[in-house]
Design goal:
CATH class: Alpha Beta
Structural class: alpha/beta
CATH topology: Rossmann fold
Largest sheet: 7 strands, mixed
Distance between the termini: 28 Å
Strand order of the largest sheet: 3-2-1-4-5-7-6
Number of domains: 1
Number of helices: 7
Shape: globular
CATH architecture: 3-Layer(aba) Sandwich
Order of helices and strands: HHHEEHEEHEHHEE
CATH superfamily: Vaccinia Virus protein VP39
Number of strands: 7
């Protein structure tokens, strides 16, 4: 899967993203923010902030930074931040999730909502989250994973080749992501409609570092 495919897809759907992926994914967004943003004064990174649908749910005493690879999506997030006067949002940056420009241990918590299956290299993506999160900090991932239902799993596998061309892993096994990401997953709970998505609450007990 190529990063440019993902960028083209988000450019195409940026105008309609909130309509199609807003309300149906709101439960996962709200719960993920609640889990990660559980203390006052936290500095939090949202990887793949998109159009900023999650930003209103953060505590007003938090310090939130969002990054996304899509300039079109970020432009909508910035307009949302200004319109709602979200003073806890410190910055929104155009940035690749696999190559974050932040120093090690920059954030108390990191969230990635509906992002893990659209990055080209999930292992590198997770390593960057671990690197910029403090030791013992919280990492929350919400994503779809390959269904345990045989019929749904068959359809996901059939769609996998097509999905890759629009920047999406349709066949995305949980066990593979768990092993590749090296995230210390402490809790897995169903999320959103029919529990098809999963919320992963992780503790960053093995922070990554970039080689010198």
């Amino acid at each position: 899967m190529d990063l440019q495919d993902t960028i083209r897809t988000y450019r195409l759907f940026s105008g309609s993203y909130d309509f199609f992926f807003g309300p149906v994914f709101h439960p996962g967004r709200k719960e993920a923010v609640r889990v990660a943003n559980d203390r006052p004064g936290q500095r939090i990174l949202e990887v793949g902030v998109g159009t900023g649908l999650s930003l209103p749910y953060f505590r007003p005493d938090s310090h939130v930074v969002g990054i996304d690879v899509s300039a079109e999506m970020l432009a909508k997030a910035k307009r949302r931040t200004e319109r709602l006067a979200l003073r806890h949002v410190e910055g929104l940056h155009l940035m690749d999730a696999e190559n974050l420009s932040f120093p090690d241990n920059s954030f108390d918590a990191v969230l990635a909502l509906y992002v893990a299956s659209v990055v080209p290299d999930p292992a590198r993506f997770a390593a960057e989250m671990r690197r910029v999160c403090i030791p013992g900090g919280t990492i929350v991932v919400v994503n779809h994973f390959t269904s345990e239902n045989p019929l749904v799993r068959f359809m996901e596998k059939r769609l996998a080749a097509l999905a890759r061309h629009i920047g999406f892993h349709a066949d995305f096994p949980f066990e593979g992501f768990q092993q590749a990401s090296r995230l210390s997953i402490r809790e897995v709970r169903p999320s959103n409609l029919f529990g098809y998505w999963k919320l992963l609450r992780c503790v960053n007990d093995k922070p990554a570092s970039r080689p010198a």
